[in-house]
Amino acid sequence: MPTTTLSPRGTTARSTTIALKLLMAVTGLVFVGYLLLHMYGNLKALWGEEAFNTYAEHLRTFGEPMLPYGGLLWIVRVVLIVSLVGHAYAAYTLWSRAGAARRTKYAAVKSAATSQWMRWGGTFLLLFVVWHLLHFTIVKISPNADKQGPDVTANPFQLVVASFEVWWMVLIYVAAMVALFMHLLHGVYSAQQTLGWTGTPKARARARTAGLVIALVVVVGFLIPPLSIAFDLIN
Amino acid sequence: MSGLMNLTLKIWRQSGPDDKGRLVTYRVSDISPDMSFLEMLDVLNEELNAKGEEPIAFDSDCREGICGMCGLMISGHAHGPERTTTCQLHMRSFKDGETITVEPWRAEAFPIVRDLVVDRGSFDRIIQSGGFISANTGSAPDAHATPVPKDNADRAFMAAECIGCGACVAACPNASAMLFMGAKVTHLGELPQGQPERDARVVSMVNQHDHEGFGGCTNVGACSQACPKGIPQDVISQLNMDLRTALQHGR
């Protein structure tokens, strides 16, 4: 090839920014699948304490005796942790590359809102996930002054109800859902584009619709239980 | 004559690659709405010449929208508010009394040579890294020697419309050249002559793209909106697909 004067840094498909994008797309789709399952589980709260807590316990006994107690849950957790590391690594690497690709900003161009939502919204979601895990999984914190003690924190349904009777807690979760909506709206479309599934205008329109539908379903589904609690429809 | 325009221009002046550069305000009067944007700059340059000042450097060549040489960021839009090249943008797209900001393409991979002129050699090096295609040379082959389905030929022609002006990079929030590269990869990938080197080509071009310092794609689509040839986003999808296929083939 007449390219002897060139010295491209990478030489493999794996060393490209598109490979990073593929990592982001695949891990993103793992999250979409998980979000749909998680949302379905949350909706059990509408059927009351027993339905919700039985579902939570069933998640741990699922697959027994082939799997140990909590086995499936740990498989899912490992997949999610690996996906989170991959997703965040790809995102922050590409973000810093993008910053380095244009050091002098335009005087007359406003920054693209979509990119800001993905990056800052994504960072907010990362912080939210940390808080969410501390809140309901790792530490089990009840922010409700009237409802404290192991009766509340060891009972998944009671902890959820106690938490969303606190107004600022509802606010944090609603803000996270707004960020999640914007993230999914672009992210689901973007993942399909990155995977090369949008080769025609029709396929691209379909991918955008998929983004909107998934974002709406997930966010509305997630908002129903906390808002029902906040407005005293569940107690 | 009626409808002549008076405009305020804020133009980026930079005496060389190492100069810091700044926006300088100029006023032009009696501009015809039928002038092209570059003709308006020609008028300003003649005035500057007459005053003994350094004229504003900008790129242009064919001035009929097909060579890809011109390209300015006009009030935040690559090639201005219309979907066309800067040379085919007419002053009727602006209002009398308007203030217009004119900047060069901004990307680390497009270093500024002077004023509004940038070095787009990185595009040439991406093309170069794509290498050759296997086509017999010598006497012209019969027209029906290598059949190409109509749909593939149409898509190849659509992608081949890319004139390499760099508006996609200029408009992209990440200064990514994926639309340009997608057009080139789709153009050759749709044709039978481009098949044997298909995997090697995409891997080499994308690596060169990254090495030149362009950013990654976030699929926001600003590139297609800025493209004077209306190259759609689906060429980037094709590029991603080709890279993924090369990855699966162990490249």
From TrEMBL, chain A:
Bilayer-spanning residue ranges: 18-37, 72-95, 116-134, 166-189, 210-231
Gene3D superfamilies the record matches: Fumarate reductase/succinate dehydrogenase, transmembrane subunit (1.20.1300.10)
Superkingdom assignment: Bacteria
Compartments, record wording: Membrane
GO MF annotations in UniProt: metal ion binding
Keywords per UniProt: Heme, Iron, Membrane, Metal-binding, Transmembrane, Transmembrane helix
Chief site of localization: membrane
GO cellular component: a single term: membrane
Keyword Isomerase included in the entry's annotation: no
Listed name of the protein: Succinate dehydrogenase
UniProtKB/TrEMBL annotation, chain B:
Family: Belongs to the succinate dehydrogenase/fumarate reductase iron-sulfur protein family.
InterPro entries: 2Fe-2S_ferredoxin-like_sf, 2Fe2S_fd_BS, 4Fe4S_Fe-S-bd, 4Fe4S_Fe_S_CS, Beta-grasp_dom_sf, Helical_ferredxn, SDH/FRD_Iron-Sulfur, Succ_DH/fum_Rdtase_Fe-S
Gene Ontology molecular function: any one: 3 iron, 4 sulfur cluster binding
Pfam families, per database record: Fer2_3, Fer4_8
Species annotation: Knoellia flava
GO annotation terms (biological process): respiratory electron transport chain; tricarboxylic acid cycle
EC primary class: oxidoreductase
Protein name from the UniProt record: succinate dehydrogenase
Superkingdom to which the source organism belongs: Bacteria
Domain 4Fe-4S ferredoxin-type span(s) in chain numbering: 153-184
UniProt cofactor(s): [2Fe-2S] cluster; [3Fe-4S] cluster; [4Fe-4S] cluster
Cleavable signal peptide: none
EC number: 1.3.5.1
Keyword annotations of the record: 2Fe-2S, 3Fe-4S, 4Fe-4S, Iron, Iron-sulfur, Metal-binding, Oxidoreductase, Tricarboxylic acid cycle
Keyword Lipid metabolism: no
